[in-house]
Design goal:
- The protein has 160 residues and is of the alpha+beta class.
- It contains four helices and ten strands, in the order ββαββαββαββββα.
- The chain has helices spanning 22-26, 51-58, 82-85, 150-158; strands at residues 6-12, 18-21, 33-34, 47-50, 66-71, 76-81, 90-95, 98-99, 109-111, 134-138.
- The strands form two sheets. The protein has a five-stranded mixed sheet with strand order 2-1-10-5-6. Strands 3, 4, 7, 8 and 9 form a five-stranded antiparallel sheet that branches.
- The protein is globular, with a radius of gyration of 15 Å.
- Bound molecules: the ligand Nc1nc2c(c(=O)[nH]1)N[C@H]1C(S)=C(S)[C@@H](COP(=O)(O)O)O[C@H]1N2 and molybdenum atom.
- Molybdenum atom is lined by residues 118-119, 125-126, 153.
């Protein structure tokens, strides 16, 4: 993968939809970057850009209230209330200056610091979506196929 391939598209209820490359992520200002997401409590190392900085770039419309995190790679989707994550979530995009490996949830992984335990609410560990290729803002809750009962959730964790 070259640094000029799109790794994330942000669209939906925004004024300026955009497609970002690894180089675009790296070009965000230093104050918008997290050099190591472990400092925010992540289990694994990686470099991130604040969601707030991405939102400033796309300019959410006034009616944008839900954030859709879409991973085509394994057809996993979450839609979470935007206000709950706007100022704290980050998007992990790099490891040691290179692309974020698939084994770490790359090319792009969503991470919510101080998330609740797995399967606890809309904003829990399960919303830390891996392999995100598209973020879509919507005015009402969007498509979400996270498991919603314990059995389905345990099956997902077992890799069924
Ligand atoms: N694309 C994708 N992202 C995903 C999942 C998944 O199955 N696919 N599982 C979610 C769930 S249910 C949890 S609890 C966490 C687990 O993160 P981990 O694999 O880093 O432990 O990832 C979340 N992100
Ligand atoms: Mo989960």
């Amino acid at each position: 993968m070259s640094t000029n391939d799109t790794i994330l598209t942000i669209a939906g209820a925004v004024e300026r939809p955009c497609s970002l490359t690894l180089a675009d992520f790296a070009a965000f200002a230093a104050e918008d970057q997290i050099a190591d997401v472990r400092t925010l409590g992540a289990k694994r190392e990686g470099i991130a850009v604040r969601l707030a900085a991405l939102l400033r770039r796309v300019e959410p419309r006034a009616d944008a209230a839900w954030l859709g995190l879409h991973a085509a790679a394994d057809d996993f989707h979450a839609s979470i209330p935007l206000d709950a994550v706007r100022e704290r979530a980050v998007v992990v995009y790099s490891l040691q200056q290179g692309p974020l490996p698939v084994a770490a949830g790359g090319p792009v992984r969503f991470f919510i610091p101080d998330h609740l335990a797995c399967h606890a609410s809309e904003i829990d560990e399960c919303a830390n979506v891996k392999f995100v290729d598209r973020i879509e803002l919507t005015s009402t809750k969007g498509f979400d196929n996270r498991p919603h009962d314990d059995a389905a959730h345990e099956a997902l964790h077992r890799g069924e």
